[in-house]
Structure formats: structure tokens, C-alpha cells
Design goal:
Distance between the termini: 61 Å
CATH topology of the largest domain: MetI-like fold
Low-confidence stretches: 1-24
Largest sheet: 2 strands, antiparallel
CATH superfamily of the largest domain: MetI-like
Oligomer: single chain
């Protein structure tokens, strides 16, 4: 009796007789293989598109680097040369001999650091009330801030220059930094970060007797560190690459940031595109290095992950 029961139950696989299951697997295998093949092609297509976009984004920098390292050949040949010809660092050495590169670098670093510090401090202080405090006109204030996003930054140059002139801040780092310390984008990102923090944490802190300043500095800011890092990285890159506004406010060459000071190469070496390319590479490298070392915080902030 037990052997008959064993023979009757042993061939079962997933509730079906073994032969039926095997036959069904053979029947479905072409369908499964087709789905797997379609999925593979889909993934390959996505990677192909990403690779094409990467090539388009990287090509200008690569061409500039090849031009800076090359000492021979036609720079503007078509198709372009993708590898340096007679590579040398002489063009980079010429940049340091032609302009005070270290002084420009120090000025850019100071401007970027102060801009990041004050933007994080002021924009987080503006975003927290818009997110967690209830007061009359809050939505109106937030709507006005969002409305400024439609205005290009160049529209504000005249008003900002008049303001900086009236405050006697021309030819000062404060005049360069002041118009960029508060932006609608930073306030919007930080407000969104504050909105994602659970309200229970804030209520528990208030029950324990914590004030708004304590909640803001001890609870909210540590929880939105990835968002702060994201805003800081974007601000640092923007301040480092800023050219138009510093060139308007600053007139003393010794106080120029790197983005403005490198243009002296065009006057000194009007026909040496390779030296200009070398100076451009030296200007871009710090921002690339900063992004590579901080991309983990940047991606976490863009994902909006608040744990």
C-alpha cells in the first residue's frame, strides 16, 4: 500500500505529473527564451544610449586635454585627433609662467568656499520655516520664490550691480559672493528635504522641551546632510565656473578668480590655442576631482533618501 502511494505521489512536481511538467517546461521554454532575449536587447539598448551620451559629454573635455598635451599637428583638423601628438607638459608649464595661477586658484577657492557656506546657512534657514512653521502668507512667500525661477540670472545683473555699488562692495569678494548666497533652487531643494523628515521626530523633540533653534540645528540639519551636500556641490561648481559676474564686479587682476584670470592667456598667447587649452584643463580639474570624491553624497541627495 505504501509503495503504491509512493509511486502515485513521487512523479508529482509542482502539483503536476512529472511527464506533464516536463512537457509543459519544453512548451514554455521558447517563450521564456524569447522574453530573456528581449530583456537582454532592451538592457543592451539602454547601455548603448548611455554610452553615446557619455561620449558626447566627455568629447569636449577630451579634445581640450589632447590639445593641451600635444605639441605638434593641426589642432582644427577634421576628423579631429583623438590622441596627443608628441605629448608634453610644456603647455601647462607655460600657463604657470604666463599668469599667477596659484593666486587665481586661491581666489576661486575662497570665493567658492564662502559662497557654499553662506548659501547653506541662509537657504536652510529660509527653507525650514517654509516647511515646518505655519504663518500667514507662507504659501504666498513660497510662490514668489518659485516665480523667480523663470527669470534668467542675467536679468539681475543691472540691479545687483547698482546694489553692490551703493554698498561700496565693488572690487571686493563680498560683492562677488553676495548675489549668489540665496537662490530659489537651493531653497526649493532644502524645503523638500525638510518635508521628508517625519513629523513625529519634531513632535517628540517639542514634547521634550526643545526649541525651534534646537530642532533646526540638532535634528533637522543632520537628517538632511545628503541634501546639504548636493546643494553644496552644485553651488561650489557654479561659483568656481562663474565668469560674467566676477568680471563685472572685479577690476584688480590680483583678485580675479581662476575662471576670469585664465582669459589673460588669450591676450598673452593669442595664437597659442594649446596654452589656452592647458589653462582650461587646469580650471576644470578641481571641479571634476571634487565631484568624484563627493558623488556618493550627491547621489544620495538627488535620490532624496532621508533615513
Amino acid at each position: 500500500m505504501s509503495r503504491e502511494l509512493e509511486r502515485s505521489t513521487a512523479p508529482l512536481r509542482n502539483g503536476l505529473p512529472y511527464k506533464a511538467s516536463a512537457w509543459q517546461g519544453r512548451l514554455r521554454s521558447p517563450v521564456i527564451e524569447g522574453l530573456m532575449r528581449a530583456r537582454t536587447l532592451n538592457v543592451a539598448g539602454h547601455y548603448l544610449v548611455l554610452c553615446m551620451l557619455a561620449v558626447i559629454c566627455v568629447f569636449p573635455f577630451w579634445w581640450t586635454l589632447v590639445t593641451a598635451l600635444s605639441t605638434e599637428g593641426n589642432i582644427f583638423a577634421f576628423p579631429p585627433t583623438f590622441w596627443p601628438q608628441s605629448p608634453s607638459l610644456e603647455n601647462f608649464a607655460e600657463v604657470f609662467r604666463a599668469i599667477p595661477m596659484l593666486s587665481f586658484f586661491k581666489n576661486s577657492l575662497l570665493i567658492a568656499a564662502l559662497t557654499v557656506f553662506w548659501k547653506l546657512a541662509l537657504c536652510s534657514a529660509a527653507a525650514y520655516p517654509l516647511s515646518r512653521m505655519h504663518f500667514r502668507g507662507r504659501k504666498l512667500v513660497f510662490g514668489i520664490i518659485l516665480a523667480t525661477l523663470v527669470l534668467p540670472s542675467e536679468v539681475n545683473f543691472l540691479v545687483n550691480f547698482i546694489t553692490v555699488t551703493k554698498l561700496s562692495l565693488v572690487d571686493t569678494y563680498t560683492g562677488v559672493i553676495l548675489p549668489n548666497v540665496v537662490t530659489a533652487v537651493a531653497i526649493l531643494l532644502l524645503k523638500q528635504a525638510f518635508d521628508e523628515v517625519p513629523q513625529d521626530l519634531v513632535d517628540a523633540a517639542r514634547v521634550d522641551g526643545a526649541g525651534e533653534w534646537t530642532i533646526f540645528t540638532k535634528i533637522m540639519l543632520p537628517l538632511i546632510t545628503p541634501w546639504l551636500a548636493t546643494v553644496g556641490i552644485l553651488t561650489a561648481v557654479e561659483a568656481w565656473n562663474e565668469y560674467i559676474w566676477p568680471s563685472i564686479v572685479m577690476s584688480k587682476p590680483d583678485e580675479f578668480p581662476l575662471s576670469v584670470g585664465v582669459l589673460y592667456l588669450r591676450g598673452t598667447f593669442g595664437s597659442s590655442t594649446r596654452v589656452i587649452a592647458a589653462g582650461t584643463v587646469l580650471t576644470i580639474l578641481p571641479t571634476l576631482a571634487a565631484f568624484l570624491f563627493t558623488q556618493r553624497f550627491f547621489m544620495r541627495g538627488m535620490d532624496g533618501a532621508v533615513k
